[in-house]
Design a protein that fits this description.
About 70% of the residues lie in helices and about 10% in strands. The mean pLDDT is about 80. The protein has helices spanning about 5-15, 20-40, 50-125, 155-165, and strands spanning about 135-140, 145-150, 170-180. The chain has a domain at about 100-180: GMP Synthetase, Chain A, domain 3. The chain has a 3-stranded mixed beta sheet with strand order 1-2-3. Strand 2, helix 4 and strand 3 (about 170-180) form a beta-alpha-beta unit. It is rod-shaped.
Length: about 180
């Protein structure tokens, strides 16, 4: 729209006396200089549009292959880390299982020792010469310790024999003292 009013505005703007005109002139000169320098730095490209497209496709394929290789490397790294973590979990699980087995064995031994103590006390209580006496029976790992007194030496030996006859007893430490009397 070239109206007389717009033409007068344009001539006023082109007057170098106004700051707006100086700004427009500076920007225009800078743009022309920038385009000129940019054009000087580019070599002539005599390729056809198809060749340029083929080049762009080849470059994209190359970048895709690089990205695939990087993804494979990252996947291999993750796989190795997962394998290492799995091995650590297995080792921890194996240790926990071993600890549980050991605790179970210890608990079983305690229950077995308590059962042995009860069985030895019952055998001693069934003997007429030993039943009235106070004999302390302690069991640890199948080893029975008898403490207290016996009326005579044969009763002392019989207490050892009765204790040895109980299932699970591996040894008897007879500390019974023959009563004097």
């Amino acid at each position: 729209m070239n109206t007389p009013r717009n033409a007068s505005r344009l001539s006023h703007m082109l007057s170098l006396s106004t700051p707006a005109a100086r700004r427009v002139l500076t920007l225009t000169a800078t743009a022309v200089l920038g385009l000129t320098l940019a054009a000087c730095g580019k070599p002539d490209d005599d390729r056809t549009v198809g060749q340029k497209i083929d080049g762009a496709v080849a470059a994209a394929e190359q970048r895709t292959e690089v990205a695939k290789a990087e993804a494979r490397d990252a996947a291999a790294e993750v796989k190795a880390e997962v394998k290492e973590a799995t091995a650590e979990v297995r080792a921890g699980t194996d240790a926990a299982v071993a600890d549980a087995k050991e605790a179970t064995a210890e608990a079983r031994a305690s229950v077995d020792d308590a059962g042995i103590t009860v069985a030895v006390n019952a055998a001693l209580a069934g003997d007429p010469k030993l039943s009235a006496l106070k004999i302390d029976v302690d069991t640890s790992n199948g080893r029975v310790e008898l403490k207290g007194s016996a009326p005579d030496d044969s009763s002392r030996r019989r207490a050892s024999d009765l204790a040895k006859a109980v299932k699970g007893v591996v040894a008897v430490d007879n500390r019974l003292v023959v009563a004097k009397g």
